[in-house]
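tool=predict chain=A
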Amino acid sequence: MTEVITVLKEEEKFLKALDVSYSYNLAKKMEKPGTNPVLGFRTAGSGAEFEVGEMLAREMRDIGLSDVVKDRVEVDAWDFHHAVLSFRDRQGREWSFQLGAYQTQFDTQGPKTYSLVYAGKGTARDYEGLDVRDKLVLVDINQRDEWWINFPVYQAKLKGAAALIAVQDQGYGEVDDEALNAQDIAGPADAPAFSISRADARVLKEEMERGEILVSFDAKSLVREKSGTYNIVGRIPGRNTKKSILLSAHYDSYFSGFQDDNTAVSMMLGIARALVKSGFQPKYNLIFCAMAAEEWGVINSKYDWSTGAYEEIFTVRPQWRGQVIADLNFELPAFAHGKKDGVRCTYEYESFLKEFVSGVSPDKTVYPEGIEVLCPIETWSDDFSMAIGGIPSMVNDFASGEFMETHYHSQFDNEEFYDEEVYRFHHEFYGRLVLALDRLAVVPLDFSRLFSAVKESEDQGLWKRANADGRKLLEEASRGEALGKGIYDQISRINLRYRKMLEEGRREEAERLFAACEPLQEKLLYAFYKEQDYFVRLNWHDEVLFPQQAVRRNLEAIYQALDCLEAGNIRQCLEYVYSIDNNRYAFEFDREVFDYFTGYVLDQPADRLKWGTGRIIHHENLFRLVEKLKKRAENEGQEVQNLEEQLKELTAVAESQAACYRDDLRYMTEASKKIGLLLEECREMARSEEIQTYGE
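tool=predict ok
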């Protein structure tokens, strides 16, 4: 008698085989190697990263994964060995401070004496009257709410400073005054930068109340261009198919990285281990990839993170495009970021995930408000590189909650926030999701949600003022939305038939249906890849947008700025201008700084820009205009001002952006047509007699 295969049996065996303590212990084991003996740091291309990669490769083999390989990827490497600042205060007391570092080149070759100067927030104005040549410069910085580290660091370099030392003043590392902060530098390697805690900085500032002081600085931070590291890949072989499901997490880290991202890597392997122990035999190949160089991996790029993942899909394994139906990427899964859990995904996976989530009820003590599905994906982790490479991706949502402002990227990222029940839930949830994906004959992509978002992205109220007409775009989007919905309904019916065959033990018939659907799978994945190419752009704050969205937002701000300027309200005009492109905080720094960080986005080659290549368009350089407006604002209200010149310049900017907007509407209309044609092919393939024959 044919044994009936039930979903329940598979899940029961998997859940029984789970051992969360295994994952916890592996996460702790990953903490030990570090380039800095005091602070840790397991950074791109470093010996510590290599050591953990070797450990993970052994672990994959030990738990029963097959074909374990080390995929070499080219990255820029960083070794942070140490940074210690010491001095004697006026009372004769000796002080010694451990400093963090950013990905820059600086080697004192032993203790060296420097003058230390305080320069406020490190803006151009803060350097007025200061001589900082060959000195260390201490500045306060809020990277979350004000400006990124690269601007004040490069400003210090232009002023001749030996290095900049940043105090994280709110935004990050708020858990304790002893907290050090680490982020990607997003700048050149020859502008050295380090970080110091608020508590240690307070001691230095008190000593500097009468002026600069002498300190001893012993630091070694080394970067190497065009070096290499390894992504560690293992798999559970599927049955007679090239199609795969990918699970990923990154194993590089700042400090010891317990939450970010040790627990994610160890959860991924914990799920793999339980699947092997349960005897589960998947249809799809299950690929488990520990990614290197996620935190940072390329010098002098705005897009200097997710380097290992980008190289994996674009250089090492481009064949995954068209073969991998989903990437489940993991970040910081061992505690609750809020009362509600979240899965963030590409638009096309939203419908399937909502259906899946509807059957999951987390314990109220874990997530009292349940689970939500969010889209689109963001640029914060490796799932973005995977998506634009052609793999529909998702990630457990990790950006909300206080942890990002308190413990994230600090030495306080440890097991203090560890919650075993949350960790267990995520093991179970994503393990069950793997099982659910493995019971599909066709990748469950719903393009209707994409086109619905395209329609939602438009503001018809803007068309008249911009002399634009987006009606054709909305028509094509409506057509794509209907096509997408129809195809998803067909996919759902096919997958239901396939699942029923499996549950009834009709394995051979199920295999024939799966084989018949493979061309449809490939066409759907190709349509997804082209959609990512056509539709995904970024703004200067790394938000994921449609091509016409960024320029539309610019236009809205420009028109508001014009209205304010016509009313003589210069200060409010400036606030709107600051929201255009990269202009929010760039004007706090010298023109050379602004030009540098504008040019390195617009003019650098793809091997520097990685996943950001070509995704920022239609830039408006408003530095000169803003400088004029700032000067006029100083006299606002004191005299009647003639703003005709500024009105003329801003009107020209509006006309330029309006022309770009009209171009983008036409582009999006054509792009929507192209995706629509691919979807028509998918629809006909789904209706084919060969597919429809099975399971009726």
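The chain is about 45% helix and 15% strand. The mean pLDDT is 94.
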